[in-house]
Fold these 4 entries.
Entry 1:
Amino acid sequence: MDRWEWSESDIFDKPGESFVCQQAVVSLYDGEDKSTFVHGLLTLTTHRLQWKDPKNRSRILSLPLSLVVFLEQEAAGFSKSAKIVVHLNSADSNKPAGPNRQSRYNYIKLSFKQSGEREFFRELSEQLQQKRWQQSLPPAQRVVATGRHRGIMGIERSIQQKQKATDSNITQSFQDLSKLIEKAKEMVALSKTIATKIKDKQGDITEDETVKFKSYLLSMGIPNPVTRETHGTGDKYNTELAKELSKALMNPLKESGGIMTLTDVYCRVNRARGMELLSPEDLINACEMLEILRLPVRLKTFDSGVMVLQLQSHDEEQIIKDTTKTVEENQSMTSEELSQNAGISVILAKERLLLTEKVGGVCRDESVEGLRFYPNLFLTKCS
């Protein structure tokens, strides 16, 4: 753990750094020893690994990919999660402060509680091969490093060519961006016009036509999204954003049975906002304001670390009763089977089963074939 360093919340602060992938509910090991950093959000960028505590957003660790020597995989077993073993070089003496000053291990382990380790291993291996963090040097330094024997004239000519190509790319990018912004304005104006027509001609428009209009509006996005430019920063921005989320997600939540994972919320909201994308941190900050503002949508974190949004009217007792009954009718069920039966995601199906198990509604059987839940016969046969 002495290679990890405390990090800022913004993960894209290195030149040329970009997001690669992300996995929730990941714990960190210092060699063979389990650390206190458990069930966090692990993010891979082109330059580093970053671990973030979902309950304490200021508790963030970062590990440069330049320290990684090679990787290994450890398969999951009985009561044992799958892991990625990351072997590391020694850190520089002037390394930023981290959670540990010294470790007796030269490797760490990433423990994946909710699978996803294969995809993460593949992405991490690819980034180690590409070594894009080495490309973040200034252009002049890169030219000197790769062309030391070409002479001064060759180096100057190469720099001029790179600057010319960069200027051309920037100009073209801004032209394309301007066109996209203009098109977005047209789409927003069109959505307002359609909304007005629906309101003015309710008696003349059939139900089927209304459904079609609403689907068009959904694909066009939120007309006037809350931004930092329009509402400032801090609590004011988070408050207005929370109100927007509550209003925009009411119908999707009702259609999803009153609950939705934060991952699905993030995708839906950013799709609706068009150009004004939200960061994961802004989304969480706004969601934490929902209960404070007494809005009808609330943020909930399950024991496993999975975060969801749910309607305040969402009845967990009824969900437990329905899940217990469904398992009894089918004699046994896995998360995947309940997902198909209830029309919800596998993650939410698993959380329903775990919640029902917690109150004694069902019992689990964990084997090499996976996790399966059965009716609790201790309650039905022994009572």
Entry 2:
Amino acid sequence: MSVRVQPITRDEHLTFVTARPCASHTQVPSWGEVKPDWRPESLGWFDESGRLIGTGLALLRPVPGPKVPGLRRYLAYLPEGPLIDWRSPGLAGLLEPMLEYLRGRGAFTVRMGPPVVVRRWDAGTVKAAIADPAARRLGDVPATSYDPGAGQVADALRGMGWRQTEPAGEGGFAAGQPRYVFQVPFAGRSLDDIRGGLNQQWRRNIGKAEKAGVKVERGGYEDLPVFHALYTETAERDRFLSRPLPYFQRMWNALTAEHPDRMRLYLAHHDSEVLAAAIMLTVGEHVWYSYGASTGRRREVQASSAVQWRMMTDAHGLGAAVYDLRGITDTLEESSHLLGLLRFKVGTGGEAVEYLGEWDFPLNRLLHKALNLYLARR
């Protein structure tokens, strides 16, 4: 099959994405507006009959350094994409036209994140692994389920010259999109089933919040500074690098302009004070708990638990098939400060999910090597 890759309009891109039951929020056209340091392009895959069979949001970032006319070079990044038939026996015929197009745009390296699930571990398996002192990493624990087709995709990529990137952050947290996430399946389950699947601590905390009179309300653009103040406090407490307020304001403007429910903000109030807040993203049947924030004050009223349950309730009402709590660590070492986050997410009764990870194709090996050296020194 002969396939061509070329730019498409935002409307063409969005129509294709929204026709699918599941696609990442990093692959909708509006996501490019959230990243001002990158130049976004909507790409389309067309078959011989001219039918659109795939899309990709490509983000182009220039090489650091002085601008030289005619010599600008870019890192091309397709986070959690492109949206193509990854199980196609002709996978090379889908990826090679993309590489040629991006080479013509000045890309020296192409990075992508195939939305392909490799393994899953149910909550009981993860909980037992955390308690096992011999278990060091989630990847070493026998999975509840494994998709051999994912291994075939990985083999095909290696055969084409793609290289799997290694996570640059602590505990398996990559600089790009997370390879390991935690998800709660919603499809075919009632809200009572979902609440019953939460562990005892989660159910107790939700009950405490309800008894204490915590009220969760949806916020708007004007409430983002309140969220950000809590988020900054959370970042200092949990030792992660926070994003500035304008980032979330751009996100709100871009995503809600595309769809009014693409991004939601939730605020938990107790005695007229906002104690916790969170951001929820939705694309099709996939809902993400994207950012959470809370104060250290009055933690006994469990405001964060109230926010989570409200978001899960609303996600179920929207017809979500998956409630995604995003990245988790793959380390099971008791000394890791990220292990507490994993324990928290395991309490939902969901499952740990491993994706294929991110992959690079060096179009210019010298610049690709220079990029890796630059990233290693950051």
Entry 3:
Amino acid sequence: MRTSPPGPSGCRSSARPGATRRLAPVAGPVLAGTAAVLLLAGCGTQTAATAGARTSPEAACVVPGDPVHDAGPDAQDVRITSLTGGHAGCGGTAPDAPLRVGFTVANHGTTPMTYAITFTLFNDGGAWGTVQGEVADVAPGGTGRAVVDAGAQPRIDQVRVAKARSVPAAEAPAAVGPCPPSGVRLTATEESAAMGLRVRGLRLTNCSDRPYRLDGFPRVELFDEDHDAVTGVAIAQGSGGISTGTGFDDPVRALTLAPGQSATSGLLWRNTVTDGTPVNAPYARIYAKPGAAPVMVTPELDLGTTGKLGVGPWRKAT
């Protein structure tokens, strides 16, 4: 189901005309699962406005808007529950107080899920920047809660859900916190792009107290935004003919990672669109080696109509 864009908020911006728009540094997201639920700060004696609602000039509160049109199916389960801070316009806070976005996410599935929600902050009708919050291990039928600290901001007049993603809690990447039972952390790194060629890195770190051996390529399975398996895409070990000079066709070498050491691989594709329907695969399930526990990452693969994805060999990180 797609939602229509919200109406005007009726709020005014305090930003100077022509000023460079830049998102202030953002503190790390506050995590909350079903076992540790945060109490969300209220906005004085008021409640957050409903999606698309208008506020009176005197109140000048930040308005939570409907999700953007391509936020994903999970966005329908996200609700912004509070917006507080010095420039939220809800009264009583110091001018330099950070903007905080409280939200809930409901799990309507049958397995525990971990959610990553991206919010866009709007200033005077234009997108100012984004912040992200996570809610870990939400039980089936349960609701997770969290508050994102967006730092000091100019007058923000609307906050909307820009993207919502969810992965099975048992397969969620563990970038921080205790070492997973597998003994390794596996995460997707930043994407690089040039003239339609895309590369998304994978990084594996041995966080255990014993050596970890790799020999070959990670195994990759792709899923769409409804978590259905993506078919019709050839996943190749190496570049798969997508591009040369990328290092994806380098010889495979056996690796042994000592505790604390890392290895890297990557995903290679083009987003060319010709005849047919473009394929998007926001989710990828990664097996570091045969028998390894799977980890589901969100590389946001826009594969166009190419039907190809290359997977690089594991190489020891320098």
Entry 4:
Amino acid sequence: MLRMLMNSAVLMLAAQTAYAADAEQCRVVRMAEPGWNDLAFTTGVAKVLLQALGYEPQSEVLGINVIYEGMKNKDLDLFLGYWDPAMVTYYEPYKQDGSIENVRVNLVGAKYTFAVPTYVWEAGVKDVADLHKFADKFGKKMYGIEPGSNQLMMDAIADPQFQLDGWHVVESSEAGMLSEVGYEIKEKQFIVFQGWAPHPMNTMYDFKYLTGGDKFFGPNFGAATVTTQVRKGFLQECPNVAQFLNNLTFDIDLENAGMGYLINDGMKPEDGALKSITLNKDRLDAWLAGVTTFDGKPGLAAVKEKLGL
């Protein structure tokens, strides 16, 4: 009888060990995003789900270079926002030294390049090569987002083929840039800015993407994918979070709506993420397939219970 009890205890311990996929050091999951609303939203989704699974996710708003250095130095664990090809030059050194690894593409159908209001496009600015012809109307300014995120615009200005001597990039923030875009469109003034999808700007404003930026943003108006990245070794150290990251994908419609909660409704990222998850709870089956809570319980049931779904 004693042997039976001992064997039973061993089996129970083995089962518990099998389900406890992640070590204690994995409980705190350190994320970062550069202050872009698409990444604020997707990071918010990850944070809400990880919290419901019993983890303690943290998220900071940092410049892209700081994010990459943080992952290289193991001060950060993951980043959901590697835009390819727009961020290739940022990532290249870390790809070469192996300090940052790609997990999977989490979004397809994105794009990112120069944009102008439709009335500016109709006036003759249809390609990056047309900008210099209207230099005075533009005030020799391009409008970008956060400092550290506008290098491709600066590279275009430095390229002699576009004749943009004396031009400069006005750096502020995503919200600051879009505020300026809205004002200039209202006043029917000329403005060139960074446009991208997914983003509610595509329905908020009447604008066109410029051709000619392939050298910097890639072909087809900067057609892009977005990839999840982690610091070297994280996937092996924290296999349950790794499974979650391998499952976590988005699409343009989901992100446009989710970003709208942040931009138009003034919701905080986690609140917008929770609303999106609630309205799209059918996605949880795929997002949480094979994922457990931190203490080894079935993840899907736990998240639904925790979030009241």
